From TrEMBL:
Coiled coil: none
Protein name as annotated: 5-phosphohydroxy-L-lysine phospho-lyase
Species whose genome carries this gene: Macaca nemestrina (Pig-tailed macaque)
Domain of life: Eukaryota
Cofactors: pyridoxal 5'-phosphate
Gene designation: PHYKPL
Assigned protein family: Belongs to the class-III pyridoxal-phosphate-dependent aminotransferase family.
Pfam families: Aminotran_3 (PF00202)
GO cellular component, one term: mitochondrion
Single GO MF annotation: transaminase activity
Keywords attached to this entry: Pyridoxal phosphate
Amino acid sequence: MAADRRSKADTLALRQRLISSSCRLFFPEDPVKIVRAQGQYMYDEQGAEYIDCINNVAHGQYHTSGWQASLKGNPGVHRKSGRRISSRKPCPRNILFFFFLDSSSEANDLALRLARHYTGHQDVVVLDHAYHGHLSSLIDISPYKFRNLDGQKEWVHVAPLPDTYRGPYREDHPNPAVAYANEVKRVVSSAQEKGRKIAAFFAESLPSVGGQIIPPAGYFSQVAEHIHKAGGVFVADEIQVGFGRVGKHFWAFQLQGKDFVPDIVTMGKSIGNGHPVACVATTQPVARAFEATGVEYFNTFGGSPVSCAVGLAVLNVLEKEQLQAHATSVGSFLMELLRGVGLFIGVDLIKDEATRTPATEEAAYLVSRLKENYVLLSTDGPGRNILKFKPPMCFSLDNARQVVAKLDAILTDMEEKVRSCQTLRLQL
Ligand SMILES: Cc1ncc(COP(=O)(O)O)c(C=O)c1O
């Protein structure tokens, strides 16, 4: 492809003319024109190098192995891909069937269909502030979106985020896992009282747009018990958080304890590291119920040899470059300063410790100052005050030191110069 020689202003004008404004820009007041990227770095049209801490796709930009693999794709890779994913320990023994698709949204939409066929029920329980994809079916189960659109459908039931920092049950609660799971039980019972029947509980294994939340260990097994009792299945969305991002485990749901096994796992984003491929893994009974309809699952590009070759190449790079262990060590370093797991970290900016009031404007200001310092990151959470550290897994210890030093300098500067930030604290 020929290099784009347009000025940033011309590119923006063209974009404004041709692209819907609902496709938002990061940093709308002064967007960055990224013209190339490699590993954890992004480069603008002037050659300035930015450290990427925003990445939803975990393994780093444009690793050449993935693209070389895409040129070498062959039909055998489809079978191998399922086998390689299922060999990721401890891929639950009863998760046996794999569907390959083109996008993460397709994966969650199929998970919804599988759950409904298997259970014969229609309704879904989701966590507050969740986002599960851009298809109509998924906007309906994404409070993050539907709250700003036409609202909650009667078949959707929302349970509180298991957030032990801001939620109703906090660090000082004797058993937040049980308390939050009981909230799900309460939501299920109230739906049942209205004659509704639960098909599934959908949750990201670590809710991301909700504010980089780490549910208390044991919460998922307790929730699964309530959901199974209601005849539903547990869907773990590993689209952002799977594939080693959390460091010590390959799947983020493993943080919940050895005994927990979801009924359906959805994967995307990192599985192709930039190439459009996604996957749904499930148990034999769920897959069989779907087959029993007699209707084939057809997806023109899903599971193409090229996509599966890219997926295998990503797994190879992950192993060869020991990115999972790397995420653990860089993550542990950052963890001395911030809260999170592996390279999935949230910094909750608050105005004061007693009320934990979100420091929303300060967070936005910090993000723009970091951008001036060539670090790209974003905010999230209901109060948009959580700094999301989601660098690619090749993010180095040196990068971590640089980012923390810059963050520190800006915070010090803010405390001196910005009155409204005088009570700003980094919650460790
Ligand atoms: C948790 C989660 N699930 C599903 C999706 C949908 O992914 P895609 O836009 O690739 O279809 C996203 C995208 O941001 C996501 O964060």
